[in-house]
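Hypothesis: this fold can be encoded by more than one sequence.
Test: take the structure tokens below, design a sequence, compare later.
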């Protein structure tokens, strides 16, 4: 049974939902940057006198995990956004979404989605992983415990790589959403 043609009110509601999700994704990226700044600002003034390397490594690991969690929430919202936009494409309810999909298919596209993914989240994870290795030179700390340093490098590298790979190849989900809507439309 084919999909119903959405009413004008349905289209309005879906467009509002798509806009809201885009805004939420932007706010998540801003929240990730703010969280990074707050956590690093909380640690830096205390480093010379009160905190050891173990705390700094643990803090950086937690920060990397938090940034990765925010990325995954952003990614989940992007997938939901694609479900809505592909519905509008399949039901022929939005010429803009059809043209936008065709435009993205014609040329390499580096719009806000990939920019946030590849630049904001990856950058924050790289910096969160790297800062504890810069602090010893600035504050005279020792890189101890060495297990904490190694664990931070492993976790930071894995999470940064995951964000880059998921963010770079996440558009394949659009094809899945389109296929599902086309199947339902038969």
């Amino acid at each position: 049974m084919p999909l119903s043609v959405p009413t004008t009110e349905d289209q309005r509601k879906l467009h509002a939902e798509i806009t809201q999700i885009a805004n939420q994704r932007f706010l998540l990226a801003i929240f990730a940057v703010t969280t990074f700044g707050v956590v690093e600002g909380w640690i830096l003034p205390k480093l010379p006198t009160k905190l050891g390397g173990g705390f700094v490594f643990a803090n950086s690991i937690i920060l990397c995990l938090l940034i990765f969690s925010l990325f995954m929430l952003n990614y989940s919202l992007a997938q939901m956004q694609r479900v809505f936009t592909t519905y509008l494409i399949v039901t022929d309810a939005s010429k803009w979404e059809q043209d936008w999909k065709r435009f993205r298919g014609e040329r390499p596209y580096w719009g806000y989605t990939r920019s946030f993914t590849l630049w904001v989240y990856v950058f924050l994870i790289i910096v969160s992983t790297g800062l504890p290795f810069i602090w010893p030179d600035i504050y005279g700390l020792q890189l101890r415990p060495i297990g904490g340093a190694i664990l931070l490098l492993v976790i930071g590298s894995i999470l940064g790589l995951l964000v880059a790979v998921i963010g770079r190849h996440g558009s394949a989900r659009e094809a899945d959403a389109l296929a599902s809507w086309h199947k339902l439309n038969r």
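The chain has six helices and no strands. The chain has a mean pLDDT of 85.
Hypothesis status: open.
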